[in-house]
Amino acid sequence: MSLSLELHMHTLFHKGLELVKEYEESINNEWEQMYNYFKKSGKKSAIITRKSINIFSRILFQSDYDQESLLVNLKSTWNEEIGESHLNQFIISLLESSIHRAINLNATYTHTDYQSIQYVFNKISEYILSHKSADPFSIDAFLQHLVSSHQLPIDWIAVITTKDETLQVNRWFSKKPRSLPTNISMEAESIYAMIELLMEHIARSNKKMILPIPFENMTLLFCTSKEHMEHVLPLITYALQLFQSGKKTLKITRQEQQWKDSVIMFNESIIRARTFNDAVDIITEGFVNYLPFERCGLFSYSLNDEIGFGLSGHRHDRDAIREITENIKNLPLINNGLELLRLFGNGMKYLQPLYIANARDGFPKQYIDQFELKSLVVAPIFTPSNNQLIGAAILDQGANSEFTISQETYTALIKFGQSAGEVLGKFHRSIHSLNKTPHFSPREIEVLELMAEGESTTGAAVKLHLSEYTVRDYITAIMQKMEAKNRTEAVARAIRKGVI
Question: CB 141: neighbour CB atoms within 10 A?
């Protein structure tokens, strides 16, 4: 499975759309209050507000379209009913603000929910306010162009789709639209039966022929004369091939730019961090919320000691992640990448994410078994100004999942690492104390804190729900790391070093 950033962003778009549908009543109330205010105030914007509310109500609340079709429908309807106006951006922004206000009354409205709706309206604004065609490769525009051409003898084109296992005419394109029997229900059990039906009602001349051509998830029926059929068919199939090639090229271009949306939302999210712990949690969640990954473990890195240790995890056992302290030399694939950093230092333009198809090629068996690792990505967290490596995010698609990553996801990972590094870099004291030798696991910190409070071994064991033998082992390890002769000296050094 290849992780598509485009698919992930589509999912975010539809999450926002579903939220809008869920709160339809509350949103409509907010919109009506806004309209009534403009109307009572005698503002000129009241008319456009009324029209825009009607358009959004019809399309957003009732839409079963995919993202592309919804945006194209919104743009064409907006152009027909409102057109260009200096108020367009203002009205769209007001409609969005009203939605946030209506949903914000719900206690479960999260920042991710907010951003999903914001993303929907960013896309809507891009389409509606753009002077270019919203979709230069719209199948409808293409078919209309074909049937309108004076060089192709096509009378009409019917788009056939399947609904409840029945074929039906979804839409028509014709040189003479009024000649089409749009009032007749055109349904059949097979393409052959559909052609027979159309020949009876439309192509009544014996000189006409209907050509069926499968295309994407539909069948296109072209009506032309028998004498031209031999020449028309190759032209139509070639034109459809060119159309598909152009559409594919456009899609690739859009995918290459898709990472920008996810980076923007990630950046908007992490700037909310007020403390080091806030930053760690938001960054860990952000790698999952805005990229196509299911799990994230965030780790800090000490360059001097070549040690990585767990900071946090999202959709992982967070305590298990925080218990990890590992010499990077035990992770050969990661260590090889760090060797390049040691060799080139600031000469490296940026640190590269590392995709590992099989975790067994570079991770100790204990972690593979504990976290059920298969394919994963190691994304460096670094400050681009000096290429200082702060840590890394280890990402995957869940337990024992295999996957590959797309180029746009790879590009986004680099930007995420830079942004996360800049934010964590502001909390350099916290990072310095975390990376400073010796490193203590969260459990050892808890034992140290109890020792500092004067708690006995027995008392600490009771409070931590551990055996006395286990607590003694922790105390012994702490004293060794602090190079202390006794508990009091270990606590004193821990306080001086800022460990507790």
Answer: 15
Give the mean pLDDT of 226-234. 84
Between β-strands 154-163 and 166-174, what pairing exists: parallel, antiparallel or unpaired?
A: antiparallel
Give the Cβ contact number of residue 64 at 10 Å: 6
Render 218-259 in DSSP notation, one character per residue: EEEEEEEEHHHHHHHHHHHHHHHHHHHHHHHHHHHHHHHHHH
Beta bridge partners of 211: 222
Distance CA 297, CA 295 (A): 7
Find the length of the chain: 500
Which is more confidently placed, 420 or 128? 420
Residue 46 has pLDDT above 70, yes or no: yes
Roughly what angle, to the nearest 10 degrees, separates helices 226-270 and 276-289? 170
Helix H or strand E segment including 311: strand 307-314
Q: Cβ contacts of residue 252 below 8 Å, gap of 6+?
A: none
Q: What is the mean pLDDT of residues 239-266?
A: 79
Distance separating alpha carbons of residues 29 and 44, to the nearest angstrom:
21
- Tell me the residue type at 229: M
Residue 165 DSSP SS3: coil
d(CA 358, CA 316): 19
Intervals of CATH 1.10.10.10 along the chain: 442-496
Report which secondary-structure segment, H or E, holds 424: helix 407-425
Q: Please calculate the CA angle 413-419-421 and round it to the nearest 5 degrees.
A: 100
The count of C-alpha atoms lying within 13 angstroms of the C-alpha of 75, restricted to the half-sphere facing its C-beta, is: 21
CA angle 345, 350, 351 (to 5 degrees): 80
- Is residue 360 a contact partner of residue 338, using CB atoms and an 8 Å limit? no
Q: Tell me the CATH number of domain 442-496, given options 2.60.40.3080, 3.20.20.70, 1.10.10.10, 3.60.15.10.
A: 1.10.10.10
DSSP 465: T
- CATH tag for 2-129 (out of 3.30.70, 3.30.500, 3.40.50, 1.10.490): 1.10.490
What is the CA angle 196-201-206, rounded to 5? 70
The CB density around residue 257, as the number of other CB atoms within 10 Å, is 10
Other residues' Cβ atoms within 10 Å of the Cβ of residue 253: 10
* pLDDT score of 134: 46
Residues whose CB falls within 8 Å of the CB of residue 449, separated by 6 or more in sequence, listed in order: 500
Per CATH, which fold does 139-243 belong to? Beta-Lactamase (3.30.450)
Q: What CATH architecture is 276-435?
A: 2-Layer Sandwich (3.30)
Helix ranges, 271-322 (H): 276-289, 318-322
Write down the pLDDT at residue 478. Answer: 87
**H or E stretch at 27:** helix 24-40
Which residues of the chain does CATH 1.10.490 include?
2-129
Instruction: Identify the pLDDT of residue 18.
Output: 92
